[in-house]
Structure formats: C-alpha cells, structure tokens
Design brief:
It is a single chain. The chain is 22% helix and 25% strand. The chain has 149 residues and is an alpha+beta fold. It has a six-stranded mixed sheet, with helices on both faces. A two-stranded antiparallel ribbon has the order 7-8.
C-alpha cells in the first residue's frame, strides 16, 4: 500500500468521529482529499501529504496550492495533514497560515501526533477547541502548551 493510502487509512481510523469522506475528483483540480464534520457541524477539508517536513510546500501540486491559496481565507476549516515517514510523526497545518505564492517560507504546525499515538491535539484543532496551542520553546522546537512535542 502506498504511503498516502496508509495516511488515508489512518485518517479514517484516528478521526472516525469526524465522519471522514474520501474525495476522488477530477472535476475540480486540487480539491482536498477528505471532507470531515466536527461536533459543531462545521465542514472541514483536509489535504493529505507524505513527505519530509522541509518539503511540504514542494510536495503540493500547483492546483493544490492554487485551491488552498484561493479558499483559505473563505473556508475556516481548510487544513493540510502531513505525515513525515522518517520520524513517524503527523502534523496538522491551517491553510490560512501559508502564503502559497511565497516559495521559501517557514511555517508552524497547529498540532502534532505520533503515528501510533494519540491524535487528541489534532482532534482539538479540528473541533476548533485547541487546548494544545502550538508555541515555540527556548530550543525553537514546536511544542504544545502541555509540553508535548
């Protein structure tokens, strides 16, 4: 099974309470991979990527960048979920935090999880109830307020 298909399977297992719907479309180029619904009945869209952490923007196809650039200010629930295979970590990013026209920018995830661990920080962000706000520690390493890396 391919790396992105494994990530799709993880989303369906770890985020099942969000009722994930996998989208395969050739109608709208760049449309995200999943539609989810949180407890507040908000619609969420997630693009899934498997790549090294420094290669996230490069891994997005031009149509995907265009979609996120165009709709990130309109749709509050537009996200990118990245799996970093080398570290077995999953990161959630809000699309509105990116400048998709700027190629070499740094960006910070809003939540982090380990592949085999709890996804509570990711779920909290998707519920729009983030108790695990990401911040920088003295080592310039992203951490949640609870100390989780």
């Amino acid at each position: 099974m391919g790396a992105e298909k494994n990530l799709y399977k993880m989303v369906k297992e770890k985020l099942k309470e969000f009722h994930p719907i996998r989208i395969e479309t050739s109608t709208i180029n760049g449309f995200p991979d999943f539609i989810l619904f949180n407890k507040s009945k908000e619609v969420l869209f997630i693009e899934c990527k498997v790549c090294e952490s420094s290669k996230l923007l490069q891994s997005l196809r031009p149509h995907q960048k265009s979609f996120h650039h165009k709709y990130s200010n309109i749709m509050k629930g537009l996200f990118i979920l990245q799996r970093v295979a080398s570290s077995r970590e999953v990161f959630l990013y809000r699309s509105k935090d990116f400048d998709f026209l700027e190629g070499n920018q740094s960006f910070c995830h809003v939540a982090r999880a380990e592949v085999g661990g709890s996804w509570c920080a990711i779920k909290a962000q998707l519920e729009n109830n983030p108790p695990y706000m990401v911040c920088q520690n003295t080592n310039n390493e992203p951490r949640a307020e609870n100390g989780e890396k």
